[in-house]
Amino acid sequence: xNKKEAKIFYDLLLKKKAELLKxxxxxxxxxxxxxxxxxxxxxxxxxxxxADVATDNYDREFSLSLADNEQKLLNxxxxxxxxIDANTFGQCELCEKKIAKARLKVVPxxxxxxxxxxxxxxxxx
Length: 125
Hints:
The protein is mainly alpha-helical. Helices cover 70% and strands 0% of the residues. The two termini are 34 Å apart.
């Protein structure tokens, strides 16, 4: 991959990284920095109904799960940026063949070529 193409993917990865960081920050502010009382708008000092507490806990766990998924994706993006710096970007980590540019345009943090990715997915089933 030439330097011009690498720069294009580098910029794309940085853009995706910024979007993810913004999303993670929003989720963290929403799920972690808001108390149950503030989240429900309840002005009473008395405890909430158990069903309301359960719903709030579910929503908080769901938000944290989303943040965890986004953090994993962020880690993959950071690894792809490191591969650009090491001149190994676009190379399958299993078979060491080139990953198709069409795939990298859609999934710029891809670590595997399509055939190797398909093999990995079959193993998980």
